[in-house]
Amino acid sequence: MFAQYLSGFVVAIGLIVAIGAQNAWVLGMSIRRQYPYTIATVCFTIDALLMAVGVVALGHIQRLLPSIIPYLTYIGVAMLIGLGIQAFYRVFTTHQGLEVSRPEAAVKSRSHVIVLAMTLSLLNPHVYLDTVVLIGNIAAIQEQPWIFWLGSASASVAWFLMLAALGKPLSVWLISPLRWQIFDAIIGVIMFWVAWSLLKSTH
Q1: Is the dihedral of CA 25, 29, 31, 36 positive or negative?
Q2: Could you give the number of structural domains in the chain?
Q3: CB of 45 within 8 A of CB of 123?
Q4: Considering 80, 94, 148, 172, which has the largest number of Cβ atoms within 10 A of its Cβ?
Q5: pLDDT of amino acid 89
Q6: What are the transmembrane regions (predicted)?
Q7: How far apart are CA 100 and CA 40, in angstroms?
Q8: How far apart, in whole angstroms, are the C-alpha atoms of residue 80 and residue 140?
Q9: Is the dihedral of CA 173, 179, 180, 184 positive or negative?
Q10: Measured over all CA atoms, what is the biggest interatomic distance in the chain, rounded to whole angstroms?
């Protein structure tokens, strides 16, 4: 049970924690103390719900077409290997850290920031591939898919709450290109490890 939770956590962390517009904006709002916990709650709630949609959808497909399980596994392995390769590619090609996004003006209200956070999250096409397709796919072939989902959702909660609580010190730490290269190398290893574990489960 714990192994499935841990697998869900590390896969989700590898997907969520990356140099991107959403993290830069969340970090910038956190530094300015503009509703950081509201933003974090919106972001991890959307992630958790989309992951749950993936678990239900892929689980339903699995029950209707049990013969498709090996193909789902191979798709998951291929996606994880692709993500691992991308992570190692960034190690050798990325020479910048996470630059804090600076809003042009302060948000006017909590409802305004909720809309902004939802827009930034839901208009990112990668969020659906990462949460619904990849997380849902891998979870569906686990013995306890909702334990895997819980690990994945926990990773999102932990990351966004950390951004909300530690905006200023994190902005200094995450600006280092070397730290991101080390992180990407670790993520690459994790993705390959999870892919290998899934592949072994088919034999």
Answers
A1: negative
A2: 1
A3: no
A4: 148
A5: 87
A6: 6-27, 39-59, 71-92, 113-140, 146-166, 178-199
A7: 16
A8: 15
A9: negative
A10: 56
Q: What is the pLDDT of residue 40?
A: 95
**Integer Cα distance of 19 and 22 in angstroms:** 9
Q: Output the six-digit token pair for 53.
A: 């949609």
As a whole number of angstroms, the distance between CA 124 and CA 98 comes to 18
* Alpha-carbon dihedral angle through residues 112, 117, 118, 123, given to the nearest 10 degrees: 120
- Residue keyed to tokens 């600006």: 175
C-alpha to C-alpha distances, 25 to 82, 98, 99, nearest whole angstrom: 26, 10, 9
Q: For residues 94 and 168, give the distance between their C-alpha atoms in angstroms, rounded to a whole number.
A: 23
How far apart are the two ends of the chain, measured CA to CA in Å?
20
Torsions phi, psi of 107, nearest 5? -70, 155
**Contact predicate 184/90, CB 8 Å:** yes
Task: Report yes or no on whether pTM surpasses 0.85.
Answer: no
User: Could you write out the DSSP letters of every residue in 111-165?
Assistant: HHHHHHHHHHHHT-HHHHIIIIIIIHHHHHTSSSHHHHHHHHHHHHHHHHHHHHH
Measured in residues, the chain has a length of 203
Q: Could you list the residue range(s) of the whole structural domain that residue 81 is in?
A: 2-201
Structure tokens at 104: 């042009």
Quick one: pLDDT at residue 98?
63
Position 155 scores a pLDDT of: 95
